[in-house]
Specification:
This protein has 122 residues and is mostly helical. It has helices at 5-24, 28-49, 59-64, 74-85, 98-121. The longest helix has 24 residues, at 98-121.
Length: 122
């Protein structure tokens, strides 16, 4: 398997940047969806770096499956659960108000930064 962690983290950061852009434009549902996507791709970058496959879309589930020594604090798992709840409903109108989008972008930023830090350690 070709190691593509740099590609995964690059796309995660681009998704996060786009989530911030959508938030500024008032497209809260897209901001929430892209926040979830950025987080998912960032965690999958870590699995890539480790030479492991990562399946599924649950950010919390992926974070829980990180090897011992790389697992995050419970607060980050809780943030990931919030992002996971945004995965499906963002496809429906009027689901996520501005405050939710701002919060989820912040959670995604923390998870992406955490994963970037892990990539430099493994």
């Amino acid at each position: 398997m070709v190691e593509r962690s740099a590609d995964w983290i690059k796309q995660a950061k681009r998704d996060l940047e786009n989530a911030e852009y959508e938030l500024r434009g008032g497209f809260y549902e897209w901001s929430c969806f892209l926040s979830q996507q950025a987080s998912e791709k960032a965690v999958k970058a870590v699995f890539q770096k480790l030479g492991a496959e990562a399946f599924g879309n649950s950010v919390a589930g992926l974070l829980r499956r990180l090897p011992k020594g790389l697992e995050p604090e419970k607060t980050m798992i809780d943030m990931a659960k919030e992002l996971d709840r945004a995965y499906v409903p963002t496809r429906y109108p009027n689901v996520h108000p501005e405050g939710d989008a701002e919060r989820l972008v912040g959670f995604a930023r923390r998870i992406v930064e955490y994963c970037e830090g892990l990539l430099s350690r493994v």
